[in-house]
Design a protein that fits this description.
CATH class of the largest domain: Alpha Beta
CATH architecture of the largest domain: 3-Layer(aba) Sandwich
Number of strands: 13
CATH topology of the largest domain: Rossmann fold
Radius of gyration: 20 Å
CATH superfamily of the largest domain: P-loop containing nucleotide triphosphate hydrolases
Distance between the termini: 40 Å
Largest sheet: 6 strands, mixed
Number of helices: 9
């Protein structure tokens, strides 16, 4: 059986692809592979110069762009690390949107708090909402190395992708892991400083694969200021909000939209403090986007 090759990065009509421990080579792609993405497994032709076949994916992380078009970020992911930091200020809305995408892959979401240079700072109270989703955060510092041992141990043997805002230090974390733990031959990602506005510069322009010596990998992804998950149905949305879905099972009406309906268990949970109101607001915001996404697919 011909061994498969791995897509390390996608660059428009080109892709960096490698077999086994060979260094990646940049190959031109046929137009039928327009959705080829970082992490994909492919078979090359006999010359080794062209992609012949895309192997079946375990999953694929996608987003919708400003025109409603489907954009593939990466494929065959085991764990998605949502990275936040004290600066730029964390966006709860962005976390909620990433969770919808991740919990529909399926893959495991993890919450990673970077720039903890002297150890964990007091966590913001709003993080408690995510602890209820088994998202106990891991605290790290790419600058000092704090927590990197725990991060490397948690990531061992699986394909991990870092996602989040520009400037939270995703590329710096990958570079620190490459330096400290002897990952297989790869070029460390470029890193950038925060712009004067406090927003990160987009130093990573495409998702890139960095293999681990133990068989797993890190994928560094471009920073974002917004993220629109693919939501073809209300069922998809509910999988991304298991805390709301669990409460909704006790609503008086099966088609309850958790607005003003009598007997709404979700609203009751918010009134009692069991659920944060921000989670329901994120649910409503994303539910409102479903019709537009449906039109775009049509």
């Amino acid at each position: 059986m011909t061994p498969f090759a791995r897509v390390f990065a996608r660059h428009n009509q080109m892709a960096d692809i490698a077999r086994d421990d060979e260094p990646p080579r940049r190959l031109r792609l046929h137009r039928r592979f327009r959705d080829l993405a970082c992490g994909d497994r492919v078979e090359l032709d006999t010359t080794g110069e062209q992609v012949d076949h895309l192997l079946e994916r375990d999953n694929v992380l996608v987003r919708r762009d400003g025109f409603g078009r489907r954009k593939v970020i990466a494929a065959n992911i085991d764990c998605v690390w949502i990275v936040i930091a004290p600066e730029p200020a964390p966006s709860r809305n962005l976390i909620d949107r990433f969770l919808v995408a991740v919990l529909n892959l399926p893959a495991r979401p993890r919450l990673l708090i970077n720039k903890q240079d002297t150890g964990p700072a007091a966590p913001p109270e709003w993080l408690n909402a995510y602890r209820q989703l088994d998202l106990e955060p891991l605290y790290v510092s790419a600058k000092t190395g704090y927590g990197l041992d725990d991060l490397a141990a948690a990531a061992a043997g699986q394909t991990n992708i870092l996602v989040g805002q520009s400037g939270v230090g995703k590329s710096s974390l990958v570079a620190a892991l490459l330096d400290q733990y002897g990952l297989t031959d790869a070029t460390a990602p470029a890193t950038g400083e925060l712009a004067a506005s406090g927003e990160g510069r987009h130093t990573t322009v495409t998702a890139q694969w960095f293999p681990l010596a133990n068989g797993g990998a890190w994928i560094d992804s471009p920073g974002v200021r917004d993220f629109t998950p693919e939501i073809p149905s209300l069922d998809t949305l509910e999988r991304g909000f298991p805390d709301i879905a669990e409460c909704a099972d006790h609503c008086r009406f099966r088609d309850c939209r958790h607005q003003r309906e009598p007997g709404c268990a979700v609203l009751a949970a918010i009134d009692s403090g069991e659920l944060p109101a921000a989670r329901l607001q994120a649910w409503h915001d994303l539910a409102a986007e479903i019709p537009a996404q449906t039109r775009a697919r049509g």
